[in-house]
Automatic annotation (TrEMBL):
Record's protein name: Aspartyl protease family protein
A GO term, aspect molecular function: peptidase activity
Signal peptide span: none
Pfam families to which the protein is assigned, alphabetical: Asp_protease_2 (PF13650)
Annotated ranges, domain PDZ: 322-373
Species annotation: Sphingomonas echinoides
Domain of life: Bacteria
Residues annotated as domain Peptidase A2: 76-152
Entry keyword annotation includes Hydrolase: yes
Keywords (A to Z) from UniProt: Hydrolase, Protease
Gene3D superfamilies linked: 2.30.42.10, Acid Proteases
GO biological process: proteolysis
InterPro entries per the UniProt record, alphabetical: PDZ (IPR001478), PDZ_sf (IPR036034), Peptidase_A2_cat (IPR001995), Peptidase_aspartic_dom_sf (IPR021109)
Length: 410
């Protein structure tokens, strides 16, 4: 099977403030906690054979990793996505590079297939490591770029990450891409073996709520902390006694409405996280995994990923350095543009549902601040994740104003 045949490409309307047709995050930086930066800067990364060369990384809307890279010598911004078997190039970048001889293909998403183009022999450089990809996918990233207010050129999949050893340090917002087999962690690190599924997806074993470990796709590109197939959830009665709502989840293959809930505990080896926001999917196409673990959960740890060696190393990050596992308390799934936020889903039983919100309504201002291109770059997008009981004033395109009281609804 070719790498392009397994491309995890999703968006989660309940989590993101834009339609994510190909799994990219919103391009907004979360300020690094100053206390964590001052007190934890000296954390040791001595497991490397030689000191790693660190580069800054952008953490977008709390959980999406943006790095500088080059494609055919052209400098770009790229999203790191271990859940995509092949790298994805935007159509404008492909045209700029003269990659016009596209081979028609259909790729696998989480819930189905979609048509794309395929190009051959693409030169990619991440940090100082150069590789020539035998193939890469060309797809439309326009919706993502428009929502971000800046171009998204490329999504770097596991085909690129397999060329080295990736270290992610969330305390100081930096990454290193060193030679494969260059890291051996000390006693403070937990090492997990990487599996390869039937569709080349990377996976690790994880325990849900104390149950036996199961294979979950390792998915740096997912803004959902945890996804599980409905078949697994039903077989193990995971939702019994839980409050459950809905969310909109989509990708190149279309949109599906999924269940939203909170998992009591998720364990990766000896490391556990409690109260993890999760989704249950009826359509799960992977035959080798029963779900995936995304960056909000993985971002609780320092990470070293060595795909070629089949190893994932994790170490608990300082609390103030961990990526946020954000939980929506509005019930509004929103698609962002430079002028408004369009409602694409209203979660069942949520504050928005109880207040009578409807799909298609447009928000033009939040707490008196108009929606513009800065919405996804500053902190305004975080309004949906505020404390329960908070009140947010929303102005609609028709001139009316509504006050929405945030609450936990799942």
């Amino acid at each position: 099977m070719e790498p392009w045949e397994e491309i995890k490409t999703i968006w989660h309307a309940d989590r993101r403030a834009a339609i994510m047709w190909l799994g990219a995050g919103l391009m907004t930086s979360i300020p690094l906690p100053l206390l964590a930066a001052r007190t934890e800067r000296g954390r040791s990364w001595g497991g490397f054979a030689t000191p790693p060369v660190w580069r800054p990384i952008e953490v977008a809307t709390g959980d999406t990793l943006i790095v500088p890279a080059k494609v055919s010598g052209v400098a770009i911004d790229a999203v790191l996505d271990s859940g995509s078997g092949a790298s994805i190039i935007s159509k404008p970048l492909a045209a700029k590079l003269g990659l016009t001889n596209l081979e028609p293909r259909r790729i696998n998403g989480l819930g189905g297939k979609a048509p794309v183009g395929l190009v051959r022999n693409v030169a990619v450089m991440l940090d100082t490591h150069a590789t020539v990809l035998p193939s890469a996918v060309v797809a439309d990233l326009g919706a993502v770029s428009a929502a971000f207010g800046r171009p998204i050129d490329m999504i770097l999949g596991s085909d690129v990450l397999a060329g080295g050893c990736l270290a992610l340090d969330f305390t100081t917002r930096r990454f290193a891409f060193e030679k494969t087999a260059s890291f051996v962690g000390g006693p403070e690190w937990t090492v997990l073996p990487l599996g390869h599924g039937a569709k080349r997806e990377l996976f690790v074993l994880a325990s849900i709520a104390g149950l036996d470990p199961v294979p979950l796709m390792l998915d740096f590109g997912s803004s959902s902390a945890l996804m599980l197939s409905s078949a697994y959830i039903e077989a193990h009665s995971v939702l019994v006694g839980k409050t459950v709502s809905t969310a909109a989840l989509g990708g190149v293959e279309g949109v599906q409405i999924v269940k939203a809930f909170v998992a009591d505990k998720v364990s990766l080896g000896a490391l556990s996280s409690a109260l993890v926001p999760a989704l249950a999917l009826d359509r799960w196409t992977s035959v080798s995994t029963v779900g995936n673990v995304g960056m909000p959960l993985l971002g609780q740890f320092d990470i070293v990923l060595d795909v070629s060696q089949g190893q994932l190393w994790l170490r608990s990050a300082p609390p103030r350095a961990r990526l946020p596992m954000l939980k929506d308390r509005s019930g509004l799934g929103l698609a962002a543009s430079t002028t408004d936020l369009t409602v694409v889903h209203v979660a069942s039983g949520s504050p928005a549902d109880r207040a009578g919100w409807a799909v298609g309504e447009q928000v033009v201002a939040v707490d008196g601040r108009p929606i513009d291109s800065s919405y996804t770059r500053g902190l305004l997008w975080q309004w949906r994740y505020g404390p329960a009981g908070s009140r947010v004033t929303l102005k609609l395109a028709n001139g009316t104003t509504r006050v929405l009281k945030l609450a936990d609804y799942y």
